[in-house]
Structures are given as structure tokens and as C-alpha cells.
Amino acid sequence: MSAPIKVLAVDDSALMRQLLTAIVDEAPGMEMVATAPDPYVARELIKQHNPDVLTLDVEMPRMDGLDFLEKLMRLRPMPVVMVSSLTERGSQITMQALELGAVDFVAKPKVNIRDGLASAAADIVYKLRAAARARPTARANAAPPARLRAPSVSSEKLIAVGASTGGTEALRHLLEPMPANAPAILITQHMPAGFTASFAKRLDSLCALAVAEARHGERVLPGHAYIAPGGEMHMRLARSGANYTIALEASEPVNRHRPSVDVLFHSVAASAGANAVGVLLTGMGADGADGMVAMRAAGAATIAQDSATSVVYGMPAEAVARGGASFELPLDDIGAKALALIAEAGGAVRI
């Protein structure tokens, strides 16, 4: 039998350390090897126990989580799952942590922490397992990527993107070079409620595209990227006459996720067919794989992120294995390829 996944929790709250320990130790194949009340204690425990994954509180005394994360990812990169409060400030700090190299995050309940964490135990275990498989690297302090060039495109062409573990940074790499006249981009990223607004705002500040949380019934337009609201709604592509629109629905989770990439991709296959390009980025599990098969069968070109550049090569691998991916590419090549495929499909119009 394989060795258990070793977890180390860093949190200034004794209650949080106790609850996380109970969740981890009750999960098959996982073990909480140690807990630390602050980064200084954690530093020695990391050397002693060599954990597979670290949970890290954002706000702590003596050294906050971001400072410790920056030092950790520079000196000893390892999978880190942040523990963040469900506040606007907490979500903004979480986005910074993901940029620094954290793999994922767990939302800390505002009230009744004991019951809140207990109800989220399965999700916490899932994220820790995914993180343990990740290959994290610290974000390099590089100049922003050169903006891609594309002709003006019809609103009848669009790109649908799905992502999970490691996806927030992958999406930044995909969207930041996109030109302002890029086709509309619909995005489902697995993320809890309350965090996608900050994520969209951050991307909007970096991109030529207008990036925002999706709203039910709004028209899908070129030059815009729409992110499914985290944890609350599935996002589908719909039609209103000749126009594409967004439909949000609070139906049951699919593949244990809401929003689900499969829900988006199946709707794009039905409503757009060959007028779309599908992109499946890093993530654990298989969400999006069947939907990508449906998109390809409907005539859409499809791209899966390759193993070498995926933080977790799960969802893209499933799409490739099931025959859903037309292409398997490194992250840095996906944006340019998607635009080229849109142009090949007749998406370019003369200005």
C-alpha cells in the first residue's frame, strides 16, 4: 500500500488546528503529521516531517500567511492550500496567495466554524488530495506577456474554458495576452461562493478584455470574458434569437461541482457547435471531459493543457483519453492556437 499523504496545518486558531486534524485523520490514506500556531514553528516542523501538503492560514501573528508563502515558494516550493475567510479582504488576499504559488484554498466559515468545517470535510479532503499531486512553482517576476493579435471577430464565435486545481493562475496566463477584440470567452473555474468576484476583478485589471462575473440573461459579446459565479450556479450558453446569452441555474452539482465544466461544455456543443473552441485546463478529476467530447462531436475544435504545464494533470488527461481533445498544448501556446482556430472557422470579419 502507498504511504499516506502527510499534511501539516499552520493556523493560529487552536480550534481550527483541532478540526483540520480530525478531518484529515478520518480520511483514508491521509495523516496530519503536525500542526503549528505560526510560520516560525511551521518552518521547523516542515524540516522535521517533510509534509506532502501544507494548509496555511492567511492572517496570523508574527508573520502573515502571504509573507511566509512567498518565502516558502522561493526557498522550498511545496503544495500549499490556503485557509481563507469569506470576506472581501479575505478573497483578495487569497488571489494574491494563488499568484504566489498556492495550489488551492479552503473557505473558512464566518460563523459556527465547527459545523461549517464539518459540512465541508469532503471538499477539504478532495482539495488536499489534489494539492498533494500538484507540482507547484513560485510565480516568476517576469514582464507581462506580449499581447496577442487577432482580427475583429463575430459575436457568433466564442471560446469556452474549464479549469480547477491550479486554474486561477492558468487562466491569468491564458487571458492576459488576449487582445481587446478577442472573441467572447466563457469560463467555469471550480471556486467557492464569494471568491469569483475578486478573481474577476483582478483579471479585469490585468487584461485588455473586460472580465466579470457572469449575470443571468446578459448577452455574450466579443471582447468580454464571463466567469461562472463560484459555488452557486451552473453557467450555460443559451440563444436569444441570433444572439448568444448566459443562463445561470442553481441545479444540483454535476461531477460534485457547481459550477461544472461539463454543464458549460454540453451547452456550448448544443448552442454553438463548430462556432466554438473548447479549452480544458489543469485540474483534478474528470469534470469537462465528457463535455469536451460532446463539443468535438458537434464540430468544435478543442484544446487540452498538456501534462508538463498542468499543476494537476487530471481533467485534461481524461479529455485526451476519451478522445475529446483535438490538440494537447503547453499553456503558453493555448491562447494563440484558440484565436487561430477561431479565424480558421470563419470568425474573422473585415474592419
From TrEMBL:
Q: Does the keyword Transferase apply?
A: yes
Q: Which Pfam families match?
A: CheB_methylest, Response_reg
Sites bearing 4-aspartylphosphate, chain numbering: 57
Against Gene3D superfamilies, the record matches this protein to: 3.40.50.2300, Methylesterase CheB, C-terminal domain
Determine if Methyltransferase is one of this entry's keywords. yes
Q: Which residues form the CheB-type methylesterase domain?
A: 152-345
What range(s) does the Response regulatory domain occupy? Answer: 6-123
Instruction: State the function annotated in the UniProt record.
Output: Involved in chemotaxis. Part of a chemotaxis signal transduction system that modulates chemotaxis in response to various stimuli. Catalyzes the demethylation of specific methylglutamate residues introduced into the chemoreceptors (methyl-accepting chemotaxis proteins or MCP) by CheR. Also mediates the irreversible deamidation of specific glutamine residues to glutamic acid.
Protein name (Swiss-Prot/TrEMBL): Protein-glutamate methylesterase/protein-glutamine glutaminase
Q: Which organism is it from?
A: Salinisphaera hydrothermalis (strain C41B8)
